């Protein structure tokens, strides 16, 4: 819409509604039932799809930029699942969008009426890349993707985060162990996502399966950190539903359509079983790709 100062002097245009395909962070999801999508591509059941980017994949590789745990409480209103309460966990103690304080573990939340049904979710977002770690660009721009570990999908996601926590490499910032642990460790390897399955009380469900790809060359870590920092506003806009709880409702609707219902299942209890430590691949780097090619 043109905003021409010469005519009315006030060219108000309503904020543009972005379709999920145009968003900055593209959802990675597992096809529930086969369906033809908006561009006529048949999204096969059980395949991985990156909304607005690529479809019918067996694996998706990305370099983690952001990891964000949140708390979500769902309710069913007229047969539709809606978000009743949401915590971005950006205060201490955590607060929900309804104003209640969210206890930090599942048992305490279940024992608190306001938080009963509150479930932990964790979002892993990052730069889409080839298996080598070479970023896949759209023109000159990197493509950001995310997976949401929730419901049955949360267990593997937490397990993978556990494995990341155990990564034992010489630190990039030895003088700052906290930064290393919180922000840097998850950027040391390419993350590979595939589809797995898990048996539940509700039958066999599709889940994400995570594994380490090649190690990222140390010289790229600074650049990835910079990208992480510079995209925090976009990340918050997309994932901080406490700002706009309506957004949460839309997203849920979308999720239901694309990947079938995956609520009402378990999240790991506070005493997680010791996960098998997976040996990351050690060879390789992003095939000489220079992150400086990405304009930021
Ligand atoms: Zn809560």
List the SSEs and their pairings.
Layout (H helix, E strand, L loop, with lengths): L24 E6 L4 E2 L5 E2 L4 E3 L3 E4 L1 E19 L2 E8 L18 H5 L7 E12 L7 E2 L2 E2 L1 E6 L4 H12 L11 H8 L4 E12 L2 E13 L2 H13 L1 H8 L5 H15 L37
Parallel strand pairs: 1-11
Antiparallel strand pairs: 1-4, 2-3, 4-5, 6-7, 6-8, 6-12, 8-11, 9-10, 12-13
Zinc ion binds next to strand 6 and strand 7.
How does this model look, in words?
The chain contains 6 helices and 13 strands. By secondary structure, the chain is α+β, with helices and mostly antiparallel strands. The chain has a domain at about 20-70 and about 120-260. The strands form 3 sheets. Strands 1, 4, 5, 6, 7, 8, 11, 12 and 13 form a 9-stranded mixed beta sheet that branches. It has a two-stranded antiparallel ribbon with strand order 2-3. A two-stranded antiparallel sheet has the order 9-10. The structure holds zinc ion. The site of zinc ion has 10 residues, from strand 6 and strand 7.
Defining key terms:
6 helices; 296 residues; alpha+beta; nine-stranded mixed β-sheet; two-stranded antiparallel ribbon; disordered N terminus; binds zinc ion
Class from secondary-structure proportions: alpha+beta
| Total number of helices | 6
Mean pLDDT: 81
Cα-based radius of gyration, to the nearest Å: 20 Å
CA-CA gap between termini: 27 Å
Stretches where pLDDT is under 50 for at least 5 consecutive residues are: 1-8, 253-289
**Which range does the strand content fall in?**
25-35%
Shape: globular
Q: What helical percentage do the residues reach?
A: 10-25%
Number of E-type strands: 13
**Largest β-sheet summary:** 9 strands, mixed
Bound molecules: zinc ion
- H-E string: EEEEEEEHEEEEHHEEHHH
